[in-house]
Amino acid sequence: MNKGCNLNRCGSLWLKRLSKGVLVSSILASSLVVPQSPVFKGNSHVVEAAEVTYTVNATNLNVRSGAGTNYSKIGSLPNGSKIQVIQKLNNGWYKISYKGRTGYVSGTYVKTSGSSSASASIYTVTADILNVRSGAGTNYARIGQLKQGTILKGIQKAGNGWYRISFQGKTGYVSGDYVRTANSETATSTTYKVNATGLNVRTGPGTQYKRIGLLKNGSVLNVIHRESNGWYKISYNGRNAYVSGDYVTTGSVRTSTATARRLNVPIIAQRPELPSGCEVTALAMALQYYGVNVSKTTLAREMPYDSTKLVRNENGSIKIWGDPDVGFVGTPFGNGFTINPGPLKKVLDKYRAGGVNLTGSNFSEVEQHILQGKPVLAWFTISHEMPVARSWQTPSGKTINAARPLHCIVVTGVDSQYVYFNDSELVKNVKMPKDKFIKIYNAMGKRALAV
């Protein structure tokens, strides 16, 4: 058997990656905490100090009505022009003063000089709850907590990715993974949604181009710009693609320009109790994030099972086994395969309402749930590499595509470049380039469960 959730099926790769020291230290660092009131308060809008100079570093730099190339052009600035910057946004664009009105320019073509003490030392907490510790590491005692959105002023880098802060009259330390510079704003932007039962995604702006995907009704589009023929150029699974504007509706909403978020989901080790129980371990992590104190073993006993006995071919490959759309195949306490999001959601529904089976959804849907503060279980690989194909038949003749080495993780964060997730085998939070993550997620059947 070859699923990452079972040591016998992980091989030497897993053994090399996991040591006892990592296991113990990660478990100690992952305790769930109870929210307290934030300590730091203030205005999250930050203007950089006047001593910073911003200069155009392009032949001509377009000035637009919003922070993106999909917004209308309202002017241009020649090379070498000095720019009056109001604010730098999370997506790399600058909000500027232009001819008596507000405009936006891409930061790619802006050169800065001088220093900015105003913005360099002001940060915002991005985690729902951020622990403050007595030293720069999770092995130090927790002395307090900060809520998401808390403004941190005058903080200093302490090394190893941690920051030194002033906390209730004494020195404290916070992880840099859960803070960012305080430069986001709320603005009016246009949303684009699919208004059809299914909308074809194509390689070019027309029906003569190859179809590369399908978007469900209500899906939110990441539009780059609108073509002259009414088609939209969009970002789709990490690449550029096109959809017909005839089936897209637009609307204006108040939304944050931020496209990144990290959730402070506790990390739980699946071993030694559940060598094949990555799915219920991941669900336990997500539920404990909401304060639902249920153990992984309780969830393992409560989830549905497919009791079909394993039958092998003469060469040792699997001939007949169960269907993960029915329930868990095998046993999480020993030799097992997986359970799919549909039947696992039945267990989730006992403890928390509002879960969403995202099976078949593009990663952009997963990302939206993370940005809304909801952790998402994703069916992945334990090797964090592309899977190997495998299949068997159920007693009724259904073919089960069982790519390996299968694993289930909890997606805890996203930004423009990376996906962050909790891994119950490594017992730590992992960072992976977004394009690589999406390829593996797609290859594993686009299976996910938002909690």
From TrEMBL:
It comes from the Bacteria. Residues 51-114, 120-183, 189-252 form the SH3b domain. It holds the Pfam family SH3_3. This is Uncharacterized protein YvpB. It comes from Mesobacillus foraminis. The lineage of its organism: Bacteria, Bacillati, Bacillota, Bacilli, Bacillales.
